[in-house]
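Anyone opening a protein record will find just a pair of labelled lines. A complete record is shown below as an example.
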Amino acid sequence: MDKVLTHSTKSYIKIFLVGTLVGGICRLADYFPADTLWSFSSIQTLLGFWIITNTIIVLLSTSNICAGISSFLYMFGMTLSFYGLQAILEMFIPLFSGGFRFSLFVLFTVLSIPCAIAAFILYYWNKDCVFNSILYALPVGALIAETIAIFIYFQTHHTFLFQLLMDIVGAVVFLLMFWNRVKSRKIYIIALIISSLAFYFIFPW
């Protein structure tokens, strides 16, 4: 995968604009019915969406600093457009009433910081050392854990199908992609099992 994100103003503006666009799309999708089979309104509310998009950012980055800043700007752009678009649209369309939710905007802006730190750390999977096998396993393990949790929920409530398929595809693609990059496949498998169990039992699904 080509490295297209660099430590430059131009690159950071681009990733911020991408985040703004994605946030706007998620805002509009949020007005789909929540209790349907596909549940498009909940795309961005689950962990998998953030894992997949931020993992892609790390893969496209040229340095750990670039990965961290790009992740933060992407998340901040999403948050800004997600809550800002509602405030704009409510002036024309009653459906979008609710105003600019400043407290939630601040909350998710603050949560962008740990995402940036995670991206900064994950970039070190590019180093030729055994430790990279553990780093590569973390996003995949989280996706596997959420896949299991959503599958159980899907069996009972018959919803979140889109999120389930997204997590399955993301987990399979990253699992195979990282399989050829890890320093130790044995450690990678062990780390996958441990991280999957840890995310499944620790995260409040």
